[in-house]
Request: fold
Amino acid sequence: MRKKNIMKKIINTSKAPAPIGPYNQAVLSGNTLYVSGQIPLDPKTGELVEGDIKKETARSMDNLKAILNAAEMTFENVIKTTIFIKDMNQFSKINEVYGSYFNEASAPARETVEVANLPKFVNVEISAIAVK
Reply:
């Protein structure tokens, strides 16, 4: 059995937080971009945005946007997202901010999952899959 050669391009930008472990901000395989989960970490200061779930969600989405842009894509290219949240009672506020980044008619598929904890104990993390 021959090993298949998988083509992938690593996407990294200084306009989003640097990875805090053995992973990359995104990987482009063919026309599909897999974006790692983004937390509300300010890439300029390295500080967490805390205390307001709407601001935390916006920072996470802005980090996603920076990575999409680095891959020459926009939110229109996003076909799937996953939102991990610490408290499902915050869902409506998160959803309000999240929705402002998409055209409702062409919004991606999505799941939202409540979890016990997230990296750096943040309240929200959002990942995405996009296609050129």
